[in-house]
Amino acid sequence: MIVRMHQGTDTEAAKTVAEHLRSRGFEVHLLASSGAPVIGVNGRPIPDDLGQTLCSLPGVADVLDSPRPYRLAAREARPSGTVVQVGNVRIGGPEPVIIAGPCTVESREQMLRAAEAVRAAGAVMLRGGAFKPRTSPYSFQGLGEEGLRLLAEAGAATGMPVVSEVMEPDQVELVAEYADVLQIGSRNMANFPLLRRVARVNRPVLLKRGFAATIEEWLLSAEYILAGGNDRVILCERGIRSFDPSTRFTLDLNAVPLVRQLSHLPIIVDPSHGTGRRDLVASMALAGIAAGAHGLIIEAVPDPDAALCDGPQSITPDTLATIAARARAIHSALMPELAVTA
Fold first, then answer.
1. Which of 22, 105, 175, 223 could be disulfide-bonded to 166 (CB atoms 3.0-4.6 Å)?
2. DSSP for 271-297?
3. Which pTM was predicted?
C-alpha cells in the first residue's frame, strides 16, 4: 500500500501518519526529501477500513494499493515524477543534464584539463572514477582517495558537482566525503549490502542497470535505496549484454520510455558504455534524449587515445559540445511528447 501526501505537506504531518501506521503493527518507509511525501506500507494484512481512516488524517491526499513489487519506485507513488537536486543541477527537471569527464582520474593535470574542457562544451556535472571495477586484475584500478581528492578539486575549480563510483559498503562514507553523487556501477546493481549502505548517507545515488538485469530487477534495486529512506535516486541505462560482439554492449533504449511509464525516478543514458565505440556515442546519445532520457553521462577527455581506461569509447570535447547543443534542441522540439502524465 502507498499513502500519498499532498504537495507541500510538511514532514511532521507525514511522520504523524507513519507513526499511526507503526502503532497498528505495520512496517513503514517514509520518503520526504524530493517532492511530496510518500509512505510505503508493508506487513500484516491491511484491513478494509484503514484507507478511510488514513484519508481523514491531515495532509493525506490518497491511499492506494500498488500492483508492483517496487511500490516506492513505482510511478503511482509520485505521478508527477521526482526531480533530484544536486547543487544547482536538477535531474528530472525541464532541461536535459549533461554529465561528462574521464573514465578514471589519472592525475591532477589530466583532471583539471578535462573538467575545464567538458564544462566549456556544455557539461553541468563532472564524472571521474577513483575506484574502478576492472575485468582484469592487471588493469589500472584507479587512484583511490587521492583520485577522489583530485576529482573534488576539479569540480570546485569549475563549479560542477561531481559523480564517482563506490564499489564496497566500507567505501561509502569515504566517497561521500568528496563526491556529490554516489554511483553504483553495473556490476554492483544487485549488491544489496551496498545499496542499503548508500541509502543511509545524505547523497543522491546514480544507479546503473546491471548488464544482465531485467527492468523489474533494476527497479527493485532502486527500491532497496528508497526503502532505506533515500529517494534521491537517478537511474542510468548503460547497455545490456547480447550475442553480438560488434559493440561492447547493446544500449537498450526501450528501457527509457518504459521506465518513465513504470517509475517516477529520473533516468539518464550512458552511450559510452552502451556502445564502447566513440563513433557511435553521438548518435546513441541523441537517440536517448529523443527516447525521453532526462540526461546523459558520457566519457569525454581532450586526448581520448592517451586515456588509461576506456579510450576507445571516450569522445573529444568538440564532439561533446555538438552532442550537448543537439540534445537540447531535440529535447526542446519533442518536449510535449516527452512529458509523462499519470
1. 175
2. HHHHH--HHHHHHHHHHHHHHT-SEEE
3. 0.91
